[in-house]
UniProtKB/TrEMBL annotation:
Lineage, broadest ranks: Eukaryota, Metazoa, Chordata, Craniata, Vertebrata
Record's protein name: 5-hydroxytryptamine receptor 7
UniProt keyword list: Behavior, Cell membrane, Disulfide bond, G-protein coupled receptor, Glycoprotein, Lipoprotein, Membrane, Palmitate, Receptor, Transducer, Transmembrane, Transmembrane helix
UniProt key word Transcription regulation: no
Gene3D superfamilies from the UniProt entry: Rhodopsin 7-helix transmembrane proteins
Length: 361
């Protein structure tokens, strides 16, 4: 009994000393020390009060502006008669996707970032959260904006037949179903998400990583780049023909539509390309069990992607006079006679165009 009890104080003192060494290696961060036992080993940061206020204020502002901007788009198209056109249904679909990101994804990411990167919402909701994040943030809603313009410029004779509410509804439904299909494999056992009650990370399985990033980003982006090139080339040729035929205003409108689409596509690529490059490379560099990428790098690229949901409503308004006027009326609480004011503004613009030199030639 005495022999077995004698080593106990020594063992306790050795363990206590080892704990002091670990604590000394990471001063002021008990959360990081506790993270040693985490299966994944993701960084759990300890933030000060001032840092939490600064980060929380910035992320809250980003979320609120994203919600308000995309809500303006949905309200404008749904309640203003002049904007209720089949082609604008696609804008509403993209705005709903961006609004869903702001309401169902950003708040949980904000809370996780404020407490240093630790996931506190449980394993079950981790899978739900990842499914929503992947479904709402895919490229296919942006694809729907490009495809009708592609048909309108490359196949102008058949496009008016396809530009109806039913065709647009089928296109939107197909896009949402395709986006949802990317989220299904982890829910049905192909690849398990990384979740050990500290970390919530999308599955790092090699096959699923290649499948999800290719289907969600690389393949549609490649297709859209080819489509945009053909749109731009057709728009240039159409503009040249209209100029020769004596229709300068038509020559100006066609390249402008191509420019609008180019900016929407470029903004999406600029915001999301760094994140998808990181997501593709991460399992091959870090392995399938966790992420070895610094937390601040992952979060910066993730919020850069979310920022795309913020800027889309401003891109629409910049290139659409009716939408811009509707924004202005709604923000000023001038709800009455919006359609009448838009019609009057359209007639005034048409008169100005008719009075310009060379417009009648």
């Amino acid at each position: 009994m005495l022999i077995s009890d004698a080593p106990v104080p020594r063992m306790l003192s050795v363990a206590h000393g080892a704990g002091e060494v670990v604590a000394a290696a990471t001063p002021g961060s008990t959360m990081e020390a506790a993270n040693v036992s985490s299966r994944c080993g993701e960084q759990i940061l300890s933030r000060g009060r001032a840092e939490k206020v600064l980060i929380g204020g910035a992320l809250t502002a980003l979320t609120l502006v994203t919600v308000c901007g995309n809500l303006l788009v949905v309200i404008s198209v749904c309640f203003v008669k002049k904007l209720r056109q089949p082609s604008n249904y696609l804008i509403v679909s993209l705005a709903v996707a961006d609004l869903s990101v702001a309401l169902a994804v950003m708040p949980f990411v904000s809370v996780t970032d404020l407490i240093g990167g630790r996931w506190v919402f449980g394993r079950f909701f981790c899978n739900v959260f990842i499914a929503m994040d992947v479904m709402f943030a895919t490229l296919y809603s942006t694809f729907t904006l490009l495809y009708p313009k592609y048909l309108g410029i490359t196949k102008p004779l058949t496009y008016p037949v396809r530009q109806n509410g039913w065709c647009m509804a089928k296109m939107i439904l197909s896009v949402w179903l395709l986006s949802a299909s990317i989220t299904l494999p982890p829910l049905f056992g192909w690849a398990q998400n990384v979740n050990d009650d500290r970390v919530c990370l999308i599955s790092q399985d090699f096959g699923y990583t290649i499948y999800s990033t290719a289907v969600a980003f690389y393949i549609p982006m490649a297709v859209m780049l080819v489509m945009y090139y053909r749109i731009y080339r057709a728009a240039k040729l159409s503009a040249a023909k209209h100029t020769i035929a004596g229709f300068p205003r038509s020559a100006e409108r066609v390249p402008k539509a191509a420019t609008t689409l180019g900016i929407v596509l470029g903004a999406f690529a600029l915001c999301w390309l760094p994140f998808f490059l990181l997501s593709t490379a991460r399992p091959f560099v870090c392995g399938t069990e966790c992420s070895c990428v610094p937390l601040w790098v992952e979060r910066t690229l993730l919020w850069l992607g979310y920022a795309n949901s913020l800027i889309n409503p401003f891109i629409y308004a910049f290139f659409n006079r009716d939408l811009r006027a509707t924004y202005r009326s709604l923000l000023r609480c001038r709800y009455r006679n919006i359609n009448r004011r838009l019609s009057a503004a359209g007639m005034h613009e048409a008169l100005k165009v008719a009075e310009r030199p060379g417009s009648a030639s």
